[in-house]
Design brief:
The chain is built from nine helices and 14 strands. By secondary structure, it is α/β, with parallel strands linked by helices. The chain has two domains: about 5-95 and about 200-270, HAD superfamily/HAD-like (Rossmann fold), CATH 3.40.50.1000; about 100-195, Hypothetical Protein, Haloacid Dehalogenase-like Hydrolase, Chain: A, domain 2, CATH 3.30.1240. The radius of gyration is 18 Å and the shape is globular. The two termini are about 20 Å apart.
Length: about 280
Amino acid sequence: MCLFILIFVSNLGYKKSMIKAVFFDIDGTLVSFKTHEVPQSTIEALDLLQKKGIKVFIATGRHYTSINNLGDLKFDGYVTLNGGYCFAGEDKVIYKHSIPDRDIEALIRYMETEESFPCAFVQEKEIFMNYKDETVEEIFNMLNFPEPPIRPMDEIRGKTAYQLVSFFTAEQEKKIMTILSNCESTRWNPLFTDVVPAGSSKRVGIDKMLEYFRIPLNECMAFGDGGNDIAMLQHAGIGVAMGNAEDDVKQYADYITDSVDEDGIFKALKHLNII
């Protein structure tokens, strides 16, 4: 039996009738960690949304070249790299925000002189890593994530990076983020964090996408399950947390639905009379 928890009830009927756009996180929201697939019920829900003229968008920490788990599903736009790289349709870039070169140089010096850790450097067209270990392989297997090639650190010097997928602990993070003074950490797993330029977030990406399509903020909703979804869930007209989300994510949602493996997206949209 599906249990929906209503946290905010004001203006619910108004919100339901006005939804024109829905944003979806990928891992743990659209795609199951167990099967690495989009549930059939979610595919049906997306089809129903599109038939009603409601636009559907991706909002993910992944690089667009690493979105390899959505099959043939089509979306109206993609908020990628936690809001740092957004494009409408399949390829029209409408916003990008990179890490300052001085932060990349400071990180390289730190890794050369203090301590090294596995790190994926996300550029506009590709991703590469300095090295990998068992933790990296564990995470990439869990996410069904294509492993980037290994390259020397020198190859990042002088090149633009939009995100760092950094495999360091929360304790290490306290020191390392003082080196990356113009960046922010968006951790959604205890084993690694996404480091993005300060000011980047899925919230910002949503705003850029809504501005491009001329859709008011209160006429959108968002689904997510991770720490990097919190800003998005707080910001959207209706924020829905998946049942498999941690409690520190759920507390910021307007609704809590069932897990991705229990048809959470379909049930939430049906319950709210969106589809």
